[in-house]
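subagent[fold] <- orchestrator: predict structure for attached chain, return tokens only, no commentary.
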Amino acid sequence: MDILAIESSCDETAAAIIRDGREMISSVVATQIEEHRLYGGVVPEIASRRHCESICGVVNEALEKAGISASDIDAIAVSFAPGLVGALLVGVNFAKGLAFSLNKPLIPVHHIRGHIAANYLAHNGFEPPYMCLVVSGSHSHIVNVKSYTEFETLGRTIDDAAGEAFDKAARAMGFPYPGGIFIDNASKTGDSSKYKLPKPHTPNPYDFSFSGLKTAVINLIHNTEQRGEEVDVNSLAACFQKTVCEMLTEKFIAAALENNCKKIALAGGVAANSGLRGELSAAAEKHGMEFFVPPLSLCGDNAAMIGCQGYYEFKAGNIAGTDLNAYATMSLDEVNF
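subagent[fold] -> orchestrator:
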């Protein structure tokens, strides 16, 4: 079964051809990072306009690289929630029009489910049940993956997501957008014990809170500069990254242990962070757990992960009609198709 997948939830316009849920025939991503970097973050209106300009070319390129025509595909999968609603609408409406014109099934895919599914493309034989930590610019979730289409969220961010905190802290340190990669690189030459940063408390032990940590970094920089002292940016980056990674790892591993889970996975844009990959790998080895993480190419937003999850949604009978809408927010546990 060949699925044409479309992803446009934020600032990447992406298309891919996925065969039988596990084989990536082609994958194309058109990024807008350089343009949004001028503004220090994603501008929703600009993102929507660029999706409109790029989507036809991206889909055509994915089909050409796969060596098939649009009429040869068996279904169309599209990310419909959550995300920037204007950006999502571009992909959803394009997918609806194409599915209608070709008389092909339309498969709606929850964006976070897609991130989780990226591990299926990377690891043959990997399957539920397992525990997954999903960490991206807008999401920080601890998810009990019971089956390919059944999920239970055990913890989530109650304010800023980890990726968002990375970007805001990076801006305060003087790094460009997106800040995660710059903090990751700077941390490699910094002293991770030089500055003491807080680990905010949450009522639910598996929830996350990064807003206070981000604010602590901003205050530390301001206070240091007001004293006429110089901030050791690389060490501050190392301290910030270490604190975030420890918070994520401690809560995630605790959730896995409480649920007697011996198989864990990492997904989302922040899964590309070397510190987090290292922390989780070491923790998994310590507790005798199998650890799965996608390659860097499948950590950020892409359509391949949407096509992979779309295959399992199709098998479960989750098909949408031409009334499919886009949603800025939607719980992972209660997906409404």
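orchestrator: received. Logging for downstream: The longest helix spans residues 233-258. The beta strands are 2-7, 12-19, 23-31, 75-81, 106-110, 130-135, 140-147, 150-156, 263-267, 290-292.
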